[in-house]
Amino acid sequence: MVKICCIGAGYVGGPTMAVIALKCPSVEVVVVDISVPRITAWNSDQLPIYEPGLEDVVKQCRGRNLFFSTDVEQHVFEADIIFVSVNTPTKTRGLGAGKAADLTYWESAARMIADVVKSDKIVVEKSTVPVKTAEAIEKILTHNSKGINFQILSNPEFLAEGTAIQDLLKPDRVLIGGRETPEGQKAIQVLKDVYAQWVPEDRIITTNLWSAELSKLAANAFLAQRISSVNAMSALCEATGADVSQVSHAVGKDTRIGPKFLNASVGFGGSCFQKDILNLVYICECNGLTEVANYWKQVIDINDYQKNRFVNRVVSSMFNTVSGKKIAILGFAFKKDTGDTRETPAIDVCKGLLGDKARLSIYDPQVSEDQIQRDLTMKKFDWDHPLHLQPTSPTSVKQVSVVWDAYEATKDAHGVCILTEWDEFKTLDYQRIYNNMQKPAFVFDGRNIVNVDKLREIGFIVYSIGKPLDPWLKDMPAVA
Predict the structure, then answer these.
(1) What predicted TM-score, i.e. pTM, was given to this entire model?
(2) 128, 271: one domain
(3) In which pathway does it act (predicted)?
């Protein structure tokens, strides 16, 4: 029986290993992590992450050929294939701070592997890592190998949160990079044989190590670039009276472009896009490619601009101040169908409103009060470090209340900001919400999910990103 061990039980390691266990009943899969609470949650009825379909997969396999354990060294010792899916946060200090990836956790994992194993291993990079990480890991392993042979493979994940299980069950591609040596090619084939049990062979792409590593950064950079492009257009649409939905629909009909990732919004979030682009920027700078670095940095700058523009629009619309006013925040996760709040635009929007002394009432169906308070008090990039290295649960932000009902959040509010595209926000009783709000009542739709005309009929003053402006807003100063 082939034995797989995955170091890291987070958003990538947990779902990926669960699907491998489901599709490869002859493979034993163990997910290990030093976090006792996280492993305890994986072994309980309340999994540590929310992902549609994940619970069913875990329950089918757990205890059969899928196991979760804190006994890291034992399972690394026993495994044939070791996936490493630890955090690669953006550095917060030192060389490359704010851009470069921090490989501390990767390096410590590599050193632990070298210390405990007694037989040849295939080590698979599953984390998003900067190009040439495999080379660094290879050096650590070979210099500490005691005669053991290691083959390093890059197998980047291309999961979208909210659809991760479907992405794993029916991937558009699986990418495996390895050394162009007989041993490297043999290792690639071993991993390819695992995926081939359910993925069509023409969807399993093999490359050299560096191409696989760079492909992950490139894919996320291209996707984020599309979002920033349509968001830049949304500002122009508001200035000219165009409708960004109509523009993106027309553009998306061009078969060379296609319709995906062309929805204007308050901005992109998640654990990958910003981190990967900053990483790409840093690699370009290190290689003297200043113009290329500046080009990709602009994708991040437009994303920040969009969030700032949204906050400014809220404040300027409401008589240029939100001080003391109750603002309802509907949605805090960075996208629907996930509880993940990493780099969610909601953090910057909420901080911007709090800076003008607003009182916030926040509702999200999947994000806990503790997580929201933590996000609003944490420094940038701290979220990506292990929980025990993050600041302890902070004192609550007094101007913030977290509620578990959209109607409670909006009661007596002066304005409503929709920051996550949860389906339930499309079907709320907006007449009831309007009746219970302060007047004039404002809706700021950061995800373009409401029926603007219907809300205006009810009496709301509505701002929807990239849509023709409400007559009320036309008299307000254009803000950056």
Answers:
(1) 0.88
(2) no
(3) Nucleotide-sugar biosynthesis; UDP-alpha-D-glucuronate biosynthesis; UDP-alpha-D-glucuronate from UDP-alpha-D-glucose: step 1/1
CB 174 within 8 A of CB 199: yes
416: domain CATH number is 3.40.50.720
Same domain for 370 and 415? Answer: yes
Q: Is 284 a catalytic residue?
A: no
pLDDT in tens, the chain (480 residues): 899 999 999 999 999 999 999 999 999 999 999 999 999 999 999 999 999 999 999 999 999 999 999 999 999 999 999 999 887 767 777 877 777 667 777 788 888 998 998 999 999 988 766 556 667 777 888 877 678 889 999 999 888 888 999 999 999 999 999 999 999 999 999 999 999 999 999 999 999 988 988 898 899 999 999 999 999 999 999 999 999 999 999 999 999 999 999 999 999 998 889 988 998 998 899 899 999 999 999 999 999 999 999 999 999 999 999 999 999 999 999 999 999 999 999 999 999 999 999 999 999 999 999 999 999 998 765 655 555 445 455 556 789 999 999 999 999 999 999 999 999 999 999 999 999 999 999 999 999 999 999 999 999 999 999 999 988 887 665 554
Same domain, 187 and 95: yes
Does 135 appear as a known binding residue? Answer: no
How many whole angstroms separate alpha carbon 15 and alpha carbon 168? 8
185 and 286 share one domain: no
432 is in an annotated binding site: no
Residue 213 domain-assigned? no
CA–CA separation, 322 vs 409, rounded Å?
16
Q: Is 363 annotated to bind ligand?
A: no
Verify that 138 and 263 share a domain, yes or no: no
**Which helix H or strand E contains 17, and what residues bound it?**
helix 13-23
Whether 229 is covered by a domain: the verdict is: yes
**Shortest CA distance to 236 belongs to which of 224, 228, 244, 225?**
244
